[in-house]
Amino acid sequence: MNDRIESILGFLTTIDALKDVERRTYVGTGERRENDAEHTWHMCMFALLLHREIGEQVNIQRVLQLILVHDLVEIYAGDTFAYDAAGQSGKAQREEEAAKRLFSLLPPDLEADLYALWREFEELATPEAHFSHAVDRMQAFVQNVHTGGKAWREHGVTRSQVMERNAVWNTRNESFAALFQTLWSAAEAAGTFAQEFDSSN
């Protein structure tokens, strides 16, 4: 086995750790939290099945590449809860350092390719990155609605926080907006937000 293949296989072994990065969002049964690998797989399915329905032209191969790479840095940087203001501080630097450390395990050309994909997603540099970013928020939103807002209620997440967080895909186009409104109505009807904020309905 040559050095190049050895490096690639070593990287693939390392990223198995994505399966151990726990998120706050629960799997559909609500019995446990999902991990980053499950989140990534589910995002890929969202993108695959919805990319023709949104009325925008995106390269689905590029989208899937962006999704597959976007959370790999959390192997070293950890998952930062979307509604944790303190945790968000320094997140960009932590993840940049993690990206350089992780992708350096690859041969130089592949290191550059994966780092570029990760930066493209982070910087919303292309239509594919915008779509991938929207799918990232969408998947988490759908999971929270599906589990009766279990993670939202556990962490005291308010209606306004959820609305602000999901504006990135809710306002992107008419198809997204219609889907969001359907899910939002279901969330409100089920009382999925933190209890102390239910009185604002």
Task: Characterize the structure shown.
With 201 residues, the protein is mainly alpha-helical. It has a single domain, classed as Hypothetical protein af1432 (Orthogonal Bundle), CATH 1.10.3210.10. The protein has helices at residues 3-14, 36-50, 60-70, 74-77, 85-88, 91-103, 108-123, 127-146, 150-154, 159-165, 167-170, 174-189; strands at 22-26, 33-35. It has a two-stranded antiparallel sheet. Helix 2 (36-50) packs across helix 8 (127-146), helix 3 crosses helix 8 and helix 8 runs parallel beside helix 12 (174-189). The termini are far apart. Mean pLDDT is 90; it is low at 196-201.
Explain the layout of strands and helices:
Elements: H1 3-14, E1 22-26, E2 33-35, H2 36-50, H3 60-70, H4 74-77, H5 85-88, H6 91-103, H7 108-123, H8 127-146, H9 150-154, H10 159-165, H11 167-170, H12 174-189
Antiparallel strand pairs: 1-2
Helix pairs in contact: 2-3, 2-8, 3-7, 3-8, 7-8, 8-12
Brief summary:
The protein has 201 residues and is mainly alpha-helical. It has helices spanning 3-14, 36-50, 60-70, 74-77, 85-88, 91-103, 108-123, 127-146, 150-154, 159-165, 167-170, 174-189; strands at 22-26, 33-35.
